[in-house]
Amino acid sequence: MDSQTNGTYMPVDELPAMKTKPKCIFFTDFDGTITMSDSNDYLTDNLGFGQQRRRQGNIDTLEGKVTFRDAFKEMLDSIQTPFSECVEILLRTIKLDPYFKEFYKWSIQHNVPVIVLSSGMEPIIRALLVHLIGPDAEKIEIVSNDVKDRPGMSRDQPGGWEITFHDDRRSLAIKPYANLSKDRRPTLLFAGDGTSDLSAARETDLLFAKAGLDLVTYCEREGVPFTTFENWSTILETTKRI
After folding, report:
1. What pLDDT, in 10s, does the model give residues 39-52?
2. How far apart are CA 187 and CA 103, in angstroms?
3. Rounded to an integer, what distance in angstroms lies between the CA atom of residue 42 and that of residue 62?
């Protein structure tokens, strides 16, 4: 049976991660989950309107006062540094979780596709993955937003770029897999840390939420089951048992 999304059926063969008929698929946030810190937060805190105002936007999102998209766009719009410089700064600054590379190597060996679901921008995510992991990172599917030039400007000018949103309800990327028939549906896992992961939090079979951060707060408030993790060693050992 094919997957049904929004009333239409998607052939199983068109779902990229199903090509190898995996028994398990791992969806994950990128910033602050695969990496030790959030690249968008770093840019905002150091090149934009600063940590205090950014953090208030996160709180307002959790409390339902603003949408995540509006708060996220506001913080990125505060960054005036040319986009290429932003990427170079992040390549020098952002570090990988010390156990993610081991997890990813294991996932390749055991046919567990890894799909990054991120509210960030694809050029930054791809550049960081390849820089931190190596050429094998090209195999990772990325579902994210993108970047574009502002009208009449270039992204490599000061203030010349902005985020361009695709569908920021990342659960929609999971639903085609979740809606597969029982005989074809793999086990679906997700790891995340913050407010941008709220839409995906209910959609998978096992949710890993990074200890002490906003996703834990949301899950506790909404009664969403979750497993906490400090780093990817916990995720690796748990996934091995599935």
Report:
1. 999 999 999 999 99
2. 17
3. 20
13 part of the active site: no
Whole-structure pTM value: 0.89
**38 labelled catalytic:** no
Could you read off the pLDDT of 135-193 as tens digits, one per residue? 999 999 999 999 999 999 999 999 999 999 986 556 688 989 999 999 999 999 999 99
pLDDT in tens, 100-110: 999 999 999 99
The distance in angstroms from the start CA to the end CA of the chain is 24
Contact yes or no for 224/201 (Cβ under 8 A) = yes
In the chain, DSSP assigns E strands to: 3-5, 8-10, 24-28, 114-121, 141-149, 161-164, 187-192, 206-210, 227-229
The active-site residue out of 2, 31, 183, 197 is 31
Q: Contacts by 161-165 with C-beta closer than 8 Å and gap 24+?
A: 161/82, 161/83, 162/73, 162/76, 162/77, 163/72, 163/73, 163/76, 163/121, 165/69, 165/73
Query: What is the distance of C-alpha 30 from the center of its chain?
Result: 4
Number of H helices, E strands in the chain: 9, 9
The catalytic position among 29, 97, 193, 214 is: 29
